[in-house]
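Lab notebook, page 48
Experiment: co-folding of the full assembly
Goal: obtain a model of how the components sit together before planning crosslinking
Operator: M.T.
Materials (sequences as entered):
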Amino acid sequence: MPAITFIHPDGKSDRVETSDGESAMQAATRHGLDGILAECGGNAMCATCHVYVDASWLARLPAMADDEDALLDGAAAERQPASRLSCQIVITPDLDGLVLKMPERQV
Amino acid sequence: MSVSGSPVTGGPSAIPHLDVDPFAMNFFADPYPTHEVLREAGPVVYLDKWNVYGVARYAEVHAVLNDPATFCSSRGVGLSDFKKEKPWRPPSLILEADPPAHTRTRAVLSKVLSPTVMKQVRDRFTAAAEERVDLLLEKRSFDAIADLAEAYPLSIFPDALGLKPEGREHLIPYASVVFNAFGPPNQLRQEAIERSAPHQAYVAEQCQRQNLAPGGFGACIHARVDEGEITATEAPLLVRSLLSAGLDTTVDGIGAAVYCLARFPDQWQRLRGDLSLARNAFEEAVRFESPVQTFFRTTTRDVELSGATIGEGEKVLMFLAAANRDPRRWDKPDSYDITRRTSGHVGFGSGIHMCVGQLVARLEGEVMLTALAKRVARIEITGEPKRRFNNTLRGLDSLPVTITPA
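Observation: model returned without errors.
Model output:
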């Protein structure tokens, strides 16, 4: 199964194994990472699973939908060009090794 | 209440028939033992009293919520099947709709109640919460439902919507009718609908564009007509959704949080020690008490769910509250723990119909609990809490408390 890395705001990182078809958010919450809140449970409704995608990976992710784009404008931490909602990133085998940085705050 | 959990013997897909009325007063008084019976009887049960299927385990509730093509909403999310019965009011364009119609109206409300909009109202909501707590600290002893859980949302939400000052006393009674009407034709529902005419007239009037103040949520919905996203006849009905579901639910949510924190003083002290837990303390109260207890769906085809076969056109009752305490999903489900990872609870639903106002509810809950925890050392319950009975909503009618300043 693909593994992905979450970098905490303090620079520490956690590499987590993903399960078949799960989102980056689900992988993070299943492993108890505090930096991902996911208040809405993965329904693209709350912007509390915000991540900054590592530059080398950004172009390899599927494009974001309009609702994700709009939600990111309301994220608690600053929106950057690399901002995505981790609930909308479904981990496929080609995303093995993906690196996501977590923002200072989610609310 | 008599409960028979024995499966009807026969085929491999035999579904346990239960003699349970989840809309009876004695059930509302203490639903938890029956929730357990419903969960343990099987993944899918049949309730003979109302001739409906029921799901009470987390996995099945979540599955039904996330398969709107099979478990539809357009035939009503109450017991009444809109295909067979005339709805008591014109159906909601969002709650009682399926894709693709639902997708367009949902997008409008999502934008009007987005995280960006919450940032804009946050300071106002916070100031009102602090003002309310100041008043309560002067009183010391009060009813935490009327003076706090109702008074606070009433002091911000109708203004945020842009409603006129006159007639707001209709808001809570109207919402009470709406949520009672999802239930079966019992006394609660019949009486609610019989008394509903003046409340319905008020709401219909307030939903019109000229009655909504500029800049409010209501005016923002109407502004989408100019963008061509919705029609002028749809806009008032979408405003109605906020009037129906935006107030009573938060009253019960905030009431639930205060009731939890008053009952579990260790959790209250934990919150006082770390105010950043306020938002999750509210969220956990929504899981623990589940202000919205149930919703129905209607099957659009024959479907197999966890080994049970359900025919087309059947009503399926989802016990959100039971799912939120399913030990298959939650560790120590009957404990109120403000540090719990609450993500995934179904107190706001899940999937395409998940509460569109969830961000408003969380904001109200967070800022109110923060304001309380900053200034109040103790909350003591000083009299017997009284329950308010509704076919869908769970909450208190009164909760006498005394608070001690910090």
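Interpretation: The interface with chain A takes residues 107, 110-111, 114-119, 279, 283, 341-345, 348, 350-352, 354, 356, 358-359, 362, 366 of chain B (CB under 8 Å).
Next step: discuss with group before ordering constructs.
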